């Protein structure tokens, strides 16, 4: 039985039976690593927060792989000037190949799909409510051509 890191390679693929292979010395076993067969698949990750319940038009904020702080103060990455939004309300962070939202001790709380959360992993099409401001989280993973 072979493991996932070991494959058998036969020198003569037209041999009639296993006994004749061993006698003629045509069989060779070579250890091959898994990376020989499976290479890394290049995937491009794109994530956005679409602010839908605040201003007249829809605003789309593209998230990077760092941290985005949501709040009222000018130092926040995503600034919302609503009185129900705390100065530093919540943050969205990229960790372990996925996005998470974390409440930063806000007065009115952070809600994901109608449930109040302290910390939560985000999935595509999650609806986020920060102090009455509604946002839609979208994420897409695109396979890049080599």
List keywords for this structure.
146 residues, mainly beta, six-stranded antiparallel sheet, 13 strands, 47% strand
General description of the model:
The protein is mainly beta. The protein is 8% helix and 47% strand. A hairpin with a 2-residue loop joins β7 and β8. It is elongated, with a radius of gyration of 26 Å. It starts with 5 loop residues before the first strand and ends with a strand. The model is unreliable at 12-16 (pLDDT under 50).
Q: Report the order of strands and helices.
A: EHEHEEEEEEEEEEE
Poorly predicted ranges: 12-16
Average predicted confidence as pLDDT: 80
**Number of β-strand runs:** 13
Tally of DSSP helical segments = 2
Biggest sheet character: 6 strands, antiparallel
Strand order of the largest sheet: 4-3-13-12-9-10
Percentage beta strand: over 45%
Proportion of residues in helical segments? under 10%
Structural class given helices, strands, pairing? mainly beta
Radius of gyration using CA atoms only: 26 Å
The CA-CA distance between the termini, in Å, is: 34 Å
Approximate shape: elongated
